[in-house]
């Protein structure tokens, strides 16, 4: 696919190759993954998508990489693509960055430094355990909270202001 | 069917209908996400010939390929994938979740999605599926991944941290308290003395109000009293009681201080010893980072609890009981009346104080955040000034400051309301005494002295009551501290010496890795089926991109970690069978990040052999090209490192660490990027020193700059955890493969910097 021995100049490393909606075509493979064809000849049977700014700009600056992890190019803004492509890529991104949004906190109980959470997320109800809340409950901005449980699962509260008062109190006690 | 997950009857029935008998199942695993990416259930089953995917009914659950917005299925959906058409079964790990992927006739297919909580099970499942597909025999050990069982054997609950076999549920607080108390075992006599003194102290403090009230007013000041007019004597008695009471409390506090200080020092010593014993894995585990820094404060926390908490608990409990008994004896009717507001006070304290503690905690955290900001800005002041960002830093500080201000204000408002309210309730008791007691006194059924005694007792009651309301919280948090301490004391080293290990002294230095697979985290193998053989005395260069697994290879050779599959052998003996002391005594490491301990240069060189003579130390330093610069230091070999700031350069420190390795005289030497951070001249000196060090030893050298590996007998090229090329420099050049390309790139990089490659 690409030549590793090729001589790279400095500009090859710093220039960003943006994928042009006019030439880059994404399609779904029968196995449920994403295929990319650029122009005529350049085809990648399966690509992986990475967000550069997963919290602030989930739809912009998306790195498209082959299965060896090499960058093919970046999507500057997902919304420049047609609707079907946006849907396909958004679904793929959501799968990679599986981070349910917590809608309500039912309870947070602490025992011996382990925090047992029962929450309602947009992916359904969930119970999980967090240790070292100071490190694993991260305030990305004053209102935006990321929680990482013991297994490395991630949960997000994009706007604590949207939570009901009880849920907010549980959070406040942690900070 | 062994291991992994046990499907419920309904799933077994579904599988049966799809053609898989229960007895044919080789492995079954449950995923916790449905096809729509919501929490749900999916079962994957493996037989000798097929893979089955069973989607449970439920909201949003639908097989992925059907897509669209069709209605949710009412019953399980089964899909059968014949293994004959499958090229590979793997798991893929993403952010917070993973996929089980089967490559069917060249086309990768997503079978299901699972959260990280199920990643281990799916990793095992995929490996078993691969074995079955290749027609290999599936053995018992394939159902585990070489990691400890994730369940508590006592209650069957999952451990919160699978790498540490500690179940918080089975470690209940009461048992913990007893365990903490067992630290006091050797001080039984002291503890008994403290308790006796406390009882005496409590009795003395109970008698005082009686003398001050009843005796003073009724018997001394009242005409016709038993001691009428003998005021001086009574005052002397009062003073004597006060003195005795103070004497007793001084004595008990002193004994107590002695005991707790000793016990806590002992606990700290045990924790540190336990930490030293633990395996590397414990220290690199992300979740333990914070744990370690807290151990010290936890021990102090325990000290406070046992120094101030427990004794005052006993004293206060005795006081409360004593006061109530005394009041009941004096006048049971008035006593009962006085006690009416007590439950109310206790209730208020119990309700209101937790909120207060929370506010205090928040204020503390906010202040800590503010301090961190100050620290950041001041430590990085060079950067702040260089970028001209003073104004932004001031703003950042102001934001933090405002948070602290807000919380402080809240706390202030709360306390300024709470305390007067509680005070009012407490006064209510006093009002009852004065009104009913006063009325009884006027009526003559209660003496004035008894009334005064009551007032004193009542005043003595509230302090202990308030203490009692938060002793439970205090106890809880002290037990949390104890829990963390025991967690470290109880952690079993992952790398443990087997009983009756093989002694190997001296070793020849032959190293063999056969089919080694190793992962720091489940399902993320860092080494994959790595095999190579190193002859005694041979020098091997490990080459590859950063993150390829080179340092990990040296870690498993030193047995800082145990491999999950395959074996590391030294002189033909599995390192897991070797005595750890023998292994470590004969392996020397010169790391990239040199670490010198506080102490003199001589002590640092002799770290591995404290009995080395002065001559040996000087010889080692000479061999390491370090002697010359050490001699020029004003304090020579007795220069204390770190005493007057950073007085040694990186290259100098590196040479001391080489001298340390030379004196240690290991059979196997590991050079982990030993010259990476040095300038050319220093590097040349160190290369020279290394050449002397390498002679006659088995050496494994990792270097980024390939030119530094010119002396290696053979090079092993590692890429993504696998050995991709092996051979002499010339052989690899001729191969025009990975090594060749790496070299070309480095030449280019050197050319850019204007140095001929």
List the helices and strands and how they pair.
The complex is a heterodimer of chains A (about 180) and B (about 750).
Chain A: H1 10-14, E1 24-28, E2 34-38, E3 42-44, E4 48-51, E5 60-65, E6 71-77, H2 83-96, E7 102-111, E8 114-121, E9 124-131, H3 133-136, E10 137-139, E11 145-148, E12 154-157, H4 165-174
Antiparallel strand pairs in A: 1-2, 2-3, 4-5, 5-6, 7-8, 8-9, 10-11, 11-12
Chain B: H1 9-18, E1 27-33, E2 39-46, E3 50-55, E4 77-82, E5 86-93, E6 97-104, E7 107-115, H2 119-133, H3 173-182, H4 188-221, H5 231-277, H6 280-284, H7 289-330, H8 332-338, H9 341-379, H10 381-386, H11 390-443, H12 448-490, E8 511-519, E9 525-534, E10 539-543, H13 550-557, E11 565-570, E12 573-574, H14 580-585, E13 587-590, E14 599-600, H15 601-605, H16 614-623, H17 627-632, E15 640-641, H18 650-664, E16 668-672, H19 680-694, E17 698-702, E18 714-719, E19 722-727, H20 729-735, H21 738-752
Parallel strand pairs in B: 10-17, 10-18, 13-16, 16-17
Antiparallel strand pairs in B: 1-2, 2-3, 3-4, 5-6, 6-7, 8-9, 8-11, 11-12, 14-15, 18-19
Helix pairs in contact in B: 3-12, 4-5, 4-7, 4-12, 5-7, 5-12, 7-8, 7-12, 9-11, 9-12, 11-12, 16-18, 18-19
> Pairing-aware structural class of the strands and helices of chain A?
alpha+beta
Helix content of chain B: 40-55%
Give the overall shape of chain A.
Answer: elongated
Q: Kindly provide the name of the CATH class of the largest domain in chain B.
A: Mainly Alpha
- Count up the domains of chain A: 2
What are the secondary-structure elements of chain A, in order, as H or E? HEEEEEEHEEEHEEEH
Portion of residues in beta strands of chain A equals: 35-45%
The CATH architecture of the largest domain in chain B can be named as Up-down Bundle
| Spatial extent as radius of gyration of chain A | 20 Å
Supply the CATH superfamily name of the largest domain in chain B. ABC transporter type 1, transmembrane domain
CATH domain topology of the largest domain in chain B: ABC transporter transmembrane region fold
Q: Are there runs of chain B of 5+ residues with pLDDT below 50, and where?
A: 59-72
Distance between the termini of chain A: 50 Å
Spans of chain A of at least 5 consecutive residues whose pLDDT stays below 50 are 1-6
Number of strands of chain A: 12
Number of strands of chain B: 19
Structural class of chain B: alpha+beta
